[in-house]
Amino acid sequence: MSASDITQMIEAVDRLAAAGFAMGPEWQAVHEICQGHEGEAPFDWGHAICHRIEGDDWNADYWYRRAGKRRGSGTVAEEWPVMKAELLKYL
Q1: 12-24 residue pLDDT tens
Q2: In which domain of life is the source organism classified (predicted)?
Q3: How many other CB atoms are there within 10 angstroms of residue 56's CB atom?
Q4: Burial of 52: CB neighbours in 10 Å, binned 0-12, 13-18, 19+
Q5: Within 13 Å and on the Cβ side, how many CA atoms surround 55?
């Protein structure tokens, strides 16, 4: 996992956030980035968020566990700043 990989994910999730965390091309881009780094905790966390947006809580919880995280009670929009702050530590 390189800093550029983390940067790519941050930029993709920022675009997804700008699109209102809705299913669509921005969601697909984040999902593909995360799938390409399966087994790396930051990307597994991103994968969890993708499946939360999709409405698949069971699958989201699986990815949260793989990332060493838990799904909170807040929205994805509330979770993203917390996640982004943690991701920026990798840079």
Answers
A1: 999 999 999 999 9
A2: Bacteria
A3: 13
A4: buried
A5: 2
Q: Which residues of 4-13 are buried (b: 16+ CB within 10 A; e: fewer)?
A: ebbebbbebb
Assign 72 a pLDDT band (cuts: 50, 70, 90). Answer: confident
Which sequence spans correspond to the domains of the chain? 3-88
* DSSP code string of the chain: --HHHHHHHHHHHHHHHHTTS-SSHHHHHHHHHHHTTTT-HHHHHHHHHHHHHHT-HHHHHHHHHHHT----SS-HHHHHHHHHHHHHTT-
Q: Looking at residue 80, what is its pLDDT?
A: 97
